[in-house]
UniProtKB/TrEMBL annotation:
Keywords noted in UniProt: Signal
Extent of the signal sequence: 1-21
Classification via InterPro entries: ModA/WtpA (IPR050682)
The protein, known as: Molybdate transport system substrate-binding protein
Record SUPFAM superfamilies: Periplasmic binding protein-like II
Length: 319
């Protein structure tokens, strides 16, 4: 069964160039996504036309015009989706090369769903009905309540916070309180689009009260020592490698991935007493075009193979 959504379009995607804040900061094209291992999953990829920093849409995977199964996933574990999709295709070879998946901020996914599954990046506008949506359990529960998704949801993995830093930790950041030090520049996940900000604010308050929350998320933003991300899981390591920032709170899986692919990134664990975990959930879309494959996908997420792939990056299985 082959589904056709929109005809082929010409993509012209302009990404804003960033200027390094330190003359010695690395700026090779390899710091820009798509990163090592992020290969297109489409059956026929046609003509390659990926140009780092200009034409590079790393969070849209596959061919939407021939897709027979579609997943919208919050982007904080984008690096494991490819491995999960490949494993799922081994179980369902009829879907090989015909899976499309997005790995963008969950707040943007929710807006996309509210806008008839339509999103525009640069000059490309894409409309495609998902079969499965994955995000934090609170957002998934809210989308079920709205009737966008079907319950019950599958809670399948949890993630912990960490402070992402440059390799060697040149600013000697050791705790959440150190993020408030003058001269420490931060990448802050955007509260409007990133569910992780709930856990970050809670952890900051646990460590230093509302004063620490205000310093990190208000004062530093106003003084130009903190920047709000638009694509949290991509921009934090990119900005660190470019020398724009010194640190950023992320899920621990994210610096682990960066280290695995050889980027000059490290992390500082959060003190156990300040830790706030998040549970990721998945649910079938109410208007899913392939509900059978969607049910199979949820069953696959419960499998040891899927859980082992997630645990490799520091995430913890729930079942």
């Amino acid at each position: 069964m082959c589904k056709h959504f929109w005809p082929a379009v010409t993509i012209v995607f302009f990404a804003a160039s960033s200027t390094s804040a330190e003359n010695s900061a690395p700026t090779p094209s390899s710091v820009f996504p798509p990163w090592r291992g992020e290969t297109p999953p489409a059956a026929d990829t046609g003509v390659p036309f990926t140009v780092p920093e200009v034409n590079n849409m790393p969070d849209f995977h596959g061919n939407p015009t021939t897709a027979e199964f579609v997943v919208f996933a919050g982007g904080n574990y984008f690096f494991v989706l490819k491995e999960l999709v490949e494993a799922f295709q081994r179980q369902k070879p009829e879907l090989r090369g015909r899976i499309f998946f997005e790995t963008i901020p969950p707040g943007i996914i929710e807006r996309q769903l509210e806008n008839r599954n339509t999103i525009t990046v640069g000059n490309l506008t894409l409309s495609i009905q998902p079969d499965v949506v994955q995000a934090g359990e609170q957002r998934i529960a809210a989308l079920i309540e709205k009737g966008v998704l079907q319950g019950p949801p599958l809670r399948f993995v949890k993630n912990s916070l960490a402070i992402m830093v440059k390799k060697g930790n040149p600013k000697n950041i050791r705790s959440l309180e150190d993020l408030a030090r003058p001269g420490v520049r931060l990448a802050n996940p955007n509260p409007e689009t990133e569910g992780i900000t709930r856990q970050i604010r809670a952890a900051l308050e646990q460590a230093g009260g509302q004063e620490l929350v205000r310093e990190v998320y208000e004062t530093k933003v106003k003084t130009g020592e903190a920047f709000l991300t638009e694509i949290h899981h991509r921009q934090t390591p990119l900005w660190i490698m470019q020398g724009k920032v010194d640190a950023g709170l992320t899920w621990i899986s994210e610096p682990r991935y960066q280290m695995m692919i050889g980027h000059p990134i490290d992390f500082v664990p959060i003190a156990p007493e300040d830790e706030h975990e998040d549970i990721q959930a998945a649910a079938i879309a109410t208007n899913a075009r392939n509900p059978g494959a969607a049910r199979d996908w949820l069953a696959f997420l419960r499998s040891d193979e899927a859980k082992s792939a997630l645990e490799k990056f520091g995430m913890t299985r729930l079942h």
